[in-house]
């Protein structure tokens, strides 16, 4: 059986990462082994300039794997955008109970949408919609958690 995937979707800076980092400890405390997969729509670079792995990659290696006691990192070229299932099937073993994906709104996985009033709406399909987390009232036929927007310090002074 494949590891289930739940996608958290929303606009940039809507609070997806913050919500995910608050949910993970609760799942771990409940005994689940969780993996996360982050979609970076604008590319990224994680390797540190000057480190051996960076030097290997810069020298032309298509993939570089760094392993230490308790950790493994892979830097690899990919010819095209991978689907989250491909990441799961290629790189994660069956010991995980759940994959939390940040992004991949167009794929058919169950979704939790984060909507922030000041950021506007996102387009989504209600197909597979599990829940909505919002700072404004929304009417849909799925569970909705309404979190009023907290005022930031600079707004309180005004």
Structure notes:
This protein has one domain: P-loop containing nucleotide triphosphate hydrolases (Rossmann fold, 3-Layer(aba) Sandwich). The strands form 2 sheets. It has a 6-stranded parallel β-sheet with strand order 2-5-1-6-7-8, sandwiched between helices. Strands 3-4 form a two-stranded antiparallel sheet. The protein has 158 residues and is of the alpha/beta class. It is built from 4 helices and 8 strands. The protein has helices spanning 16-29, 52-58, 84-91, 153-157; strands spanning 5-9, 34-38, 63-68, 71-76, 98-102, 111-115, 129-134, 144-146. It is elongated and about 55 Å long.
Essential attributes:
elongated, 8 strands, Rossmann fold, 158 residues, alpha/beta, two-stranded antiparallel ribbon
Molecular shape = elongated
CATH architecture: 3-Layer(aba) Sandwich
CATH superfamily: P-loop containing nucleotide triphosphate hydrolases
User: Considering DSSP H and I runs of 4 or more, what fraction of the residues is helical?
Assistant: 10-25%
Q: Biggest sheet: strands side by side, in what order?
A: 2-5-1-6-7-8
Measured distance between first and last alpha carbons: 55 Å
Q: What amount of the residues lies in strands?
A: 25-35%
Mean pLDDT: 79
Structural class: alpha/beta
Uncertain runs are 151-158
Which fold does the CATH topology refer to? Answer: Rossmann fold
What's the CATH class, please? Alpha Beta
What is the string of SSEs from the N terminus onward? EHEHEEHEEEEH
Supply Rg: 18 Å
User: What's the tally of helices?
Assistant: 4
Report the major sheet.
Answer: 6 strands, parallel
Kindly give the count of domains. Answer: 1
Total beta strand runs: 8
């Amino acid at each position: 059986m494949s590891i289930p995937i739940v996608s958290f979707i929303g606009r940039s800076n809507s609070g997806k990462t913050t919500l995910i980092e608050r949910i993970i400890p609760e799942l771990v405390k409940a005994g689940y082994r969780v993996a996360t997969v982050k979609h970076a729509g604008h590319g990224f670079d994680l390797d540190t300039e000057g480190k051996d792995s960076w030097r290997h990659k810069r020298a032309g290696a298509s993939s570089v794997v760094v392993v230490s006691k308790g950790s493994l990192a892979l830097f690899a070229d990919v010819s095209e955008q991978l689907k989250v299932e491909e990441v799961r099937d290629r790189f994660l073993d069956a010991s995980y109970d759940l994959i939390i994906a940040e992004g991949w709104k167009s794929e058919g996985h169950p979704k939790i949408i984060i909507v922030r009033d000041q950021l506007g709406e996102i387009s989504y399909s209600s197909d597979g919609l599990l829940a909505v987390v919002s700072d404004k009232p929304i009417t849909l036929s799925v569970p909705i958690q309404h979190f009023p927007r907290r005022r930031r310090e600079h707004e309180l002074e005004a």
